[in-house]
């Protein structure tokens, strides 16, 4: 089981947050989404490693995030906040990192957030005077963005086919959104390149590729290599009929760099956040124990010429 998947369901953290959306019991359309969320409590799917293409991955992950958005926001909403920009479970905050640039330079900038979830990052960007657009594959995640509120647009769309004109944005960002879940990340990168203006910056974070060699466990059992780093076979969870209900794709560090460059970007920085002493929480396979020994996140800072 991979880190991002575990982050959404396995974390032992507790939360006093109350993000569950109250649904009208008489609405069939809305109750359909709600029943999907309840489905997260059903039988565990089979975990395997097998091929999964672009269409299958997109369909599976849209359904998974719609079903599990409530649980994800309940479990991790307090850590993420309503209007913070947190890049990763290590807790690296854009206030400190300034990977998109100094906060004062964000004023008036058009920013696309990809895989926005409940749009916490977009809310922070709005507070800096930017003009964000929050995009996510999951309708249910965007319902949480509506619940929290904000004055920026919310767009439900696949990141491999962005519904924006060429050169629409000054900046783009993605904190664990889209890139780990698509069969061909170059489709996303080329789309982002297309919608960025010349000189635009795209910053995205993903599970550090090294983590794929280790079991997805926060304790000592997660410190021994158990698989080949070079095995790029996707991690798939499938139902009794063999249909994928969740897919995550592995790329080596070299793959990620080549994807960035061949999609027309310059890689200007690669950030591997260290685990800070203040962070005592566990998030799926992330933990202080592992975080002090092996990297958990890779953040790619890219620019469009």
TrEMBL record:
<feature type="compositionally biased region" description="Low complexity">
    <location>
        <begin position="28"/>
        <end position="42"/>
    </location>
</feature>
<dbReference type="Pfam" id="PF08241">
    <property type="entry name" value="Methyltransf_11"/>
</dbReference>
<dbReference type="InterPro" id="IPR050508">
    <property type="entry name" value="Methyltransf_Superfamily"/>
</dbReference>
<protein>
    <submittedName>
        <fullName>Class I SAM-dependent methyltransferase</fullName>
    </submittedName>
</protein>
<feature type="region of interest" description="Disordered">
    <location>
        <begin position="1"/>
        <end position="59"/>
    </location>
</feature>
<dbReference type="InterPro" id="IPR013216">
    <property type="entry name" value="Methyltransf_11"/>
</dbReference>
<keyword id="KW-0808">Transferase</keyword>
<dbReference type="GO" id="GO:0032259">
    <property type="term" value="P:methylation"/>
</dbReference>
<keyword id="KW-0489">Methyltransferase</keyword>
<feature type="domain" description="Methyltransferase type 11">
    <location>
        <begin position="112"/>
        <end position="204"/>
    </location>
</feature>
<dbReference type="GO" id="GO:0008757">
    <property type="term" value="F:S-adenosylmethionine-dependent methyltransferase activity"/>
</dbReference>
<dbReference type="InterPro" id="IPR029063">
    <property type="entry name" value="SAM-dependent_MTases_sf"/>
</dbReference>
